[in-house]
Amino acid sequence: MLDTLTSIIEKYHQPDGRIVLALSGGVDSRVLLDLLARYKATHNGITCLAVHVHHGLSDNANEWAERCSLWCRDYGIELFIEHVELNLARNVSIEQEARNKRYQALEKHVKRNDLLLTGQHNADQLETFLLAMKRGSGPKGLSAMPECTSFAKGYLVRPLLTISQAEIVGYANLQGLSWNEDESNQDIRYDRNFLRQEVIPSLKSRWPNIEQSVLRSSQLCADQESLINELLHDRLVEFTAVDGGLSISQLRHQSELARNQLLRLWLGSRKSIMPSFVQLSLIWNEVAMAKADANPRMNITSGEVRRFKDRLYFVERLSDVSSWSEFLPSNQWVELPEKLGRIQLTDKSTETPLSLRSPRDDEQVQVHFKPQGLTAHPVERGHSRKLKKLFQEYGVPSWLRTRTPIIMYGDQLAMVVDLFVCKEFHGDDCEILWDKV
C-alpha cells in the first residue's frame, strides 16, 4: 500500500508543494497518516501536515481530536484542528452541510501546488454513484471520483481509490493501529449509511462484481462529460468576459441543451456547486430573462447567480467587510479580508492615469470598503458626486461596490482602486497595486 501512495504522490507532487492530509481519524485517514509518515521518513525536505475538522456533532468529538493530536505528535507531523459550526436548520441536509463546512475548512490550508490527501476507497465509488443516481444526476454526477482534481490553489488526491476497505482494515490491524469509530456511521437515517448498511450488501450478494461494473459505467459517464466539455470549450471562452461574466445575448442563440451545459461549465469554472435541473431552469428564466430594469438573483448552495447588464455573474457567499480597515504603509503589502487579495502603496513605476500625489505628513493612508455617505470628484470629471452614483456611472455591479478598496488620505477619499483618483489627490508620485489572486 505504501508503494501505491508513493507512486501517486510522485505523480502529482511539485517541488514547491506540501502534502496536506485530511485526518478525521477514521480507519481510512488513520491508515493514510501512517503511510504518509513512512513516506516522509524516506523523503527529506518534503513538508507534511494534517488537518482535523471538529464538527462538534458527537459527544466524542473532543476525544477524536485529542487522539489525532497524539498520533500526529508521535509521527512528527504538524496537526491543525479546525472547529466549524453547522447550520442545523430544518430542511438542511446534515451530511451535505458537514461536507461543505469540512471542505471550506480544509481549503484554508491548501496553498499553491499543495496536495490534499483524502481517504476515499473503491467502495466509496459505488456509494457516490448510487447517491448521484438517487438525485437524478447527469453524466457529471454519475462520473467516477477522479484520482486527482483541482482544489483551492492546489489539488485533491485520493490515493486509496483502487484499494478495498477490507485491505485498509487489514493493514491497520497488521500495523497495530487504533482509529476513531464514529457512532453515526451506524445511523441509517443518513443516506450514505443506509446504502452502506442496507443496500450495497444485498447488491453485492446478488452481483459480486457490481463495484467493477459501476466503476466502468462511471468512467463512461466521465468520458462522455469530457467530450461534451471539449466540444463546448471554445464557445465558453468566447462567451465569458474578462471579469468572469457570461454573455446572455450569446447564450440566447444556443439550443436549450447546449445552453444548460454551458451554464454548468461556467458555474464549474467559478468553483460553484452544481445547481439542480430546476435551479438551472430558474437561472435562465428568472435571472437571465428578467425585465431590463430588474435586479434579479438566484440563490444556490455555494453562492448566488446575478445579472448585470447583458451578463450573468456568480457571486460567492462572503462575509460583510464594511467594518474592516487598515493603514497602508509605503511599499508594504497589506492582506485584504475575505479572499480579496492584497494591496500596496508604492512609488510609481508604470505609466498609469491612476497615480497619486505623495501623502502629506498629516495624512495617514488607509484602506477600507465602506462607500456609504462618501462623495468623490474624479480627476476626469467636472464636479463631485455621491460615490453611490459614481459606481453606477462607472458600471460597477452592485455586489462589488462594497468589495472594491477605497483609499483614504486622512479623512478624505483619495481613490477608488482600479476606478478613479480624486482631483485633489492626483499626482505623479505613487500608485496602488491590487493583487487579486
Automatic annotation (TrEMBL):
<dbReference type="InterPro" id="IPR011063">
    <property type="entry name" value="TilS/TtcA_N"/>
</dbReference>
<comment type="similarity">
    <text>Belongs to the tRNA(Ile)-lysidine synthase family.</text>
</comment>
<comment type="function">
    <text>Ligates lysine onto the cytidine present at position 34 of the AUA codon-specific tRNA(Ile) that contains the anticodon CAU, in an ATP-dependent manner. Cytidine is converted to lysidine, thus changing the amino acid specificity of the tRNA from methionine to isoleucine.</text>
</comment>
<dbReference type="InterPro" id="IPR015262">
    <property type="entry name" value="tRNA_Ile_lys_synt_subst-bd"/>
</dbReference>
<dbReference type="InterPro" id="IPR012796">
    <property type="entry name" value="Lysidine-tRNA-synth_C"/>
</dbReference>
<dbReference type="InterPro" id="IPR014729">
    <property type="entry name" value="Rossmann-like_a/b/a_fold"/>
</dbReference>
<feature type="binding site">
    <location>
        <begin position="24"/>
        <end position="29"/>
    </location>
    <ligand>
        <name>ATP</name>
    </ligand>
</feature>
<dbReference type="Pfam" id="PF11734">
    <property type="entry name" value="TilS_C"/>
</dbReference>
<keyword id="KW-0547">Nucleotide-binding</keyword>
<keyword id="KW-0819">tRNA processing</keyword>
<dbReference type="InterPro" id="IPR012795">
    <property type="entry name" value="tRNA_Ile_lys_synt_N"/>
</dbReference>
<keyword id="KW-0963">Cytoplasm</keyword>
<dbReference type="Pfam" id="PF01171">
    <property type="entry name" value="ATP_bind_3"/>
</dbReference>
<feature type="domain" description="Lysidine-tRNA(Ile) synthetase C-terminal">
    <location>
        <begin position="365"/>
        <end position="434"/>
    </location>
</feature>
<keyword id="KW-0436">Ligase</keyword>
<dbReference type="GO" id="GO:0032267">
    <property type="term" value="F:tRNA(Ile)-lysidine synthase activity"/>
</dbReference>
<protein>
    <recommendedName>
        <fullName>tRNA(Ile)-lysidine synthase</fullName>
        <ecNumber>6.3.4.19</ecNumber>
    </recommendedName>
</protein>
<dbReference type="InterPro" id="IPR012094">
    <property type="entry name" value="tRNA_Ile_lys_synt"/>
</dbReference>
<keyword id="KW-0067">ATP-binding</keyword>
<dbReference type="Pfam" id="PF09179">
    <property type="entry name" value="TilS"/>
</dbReference>
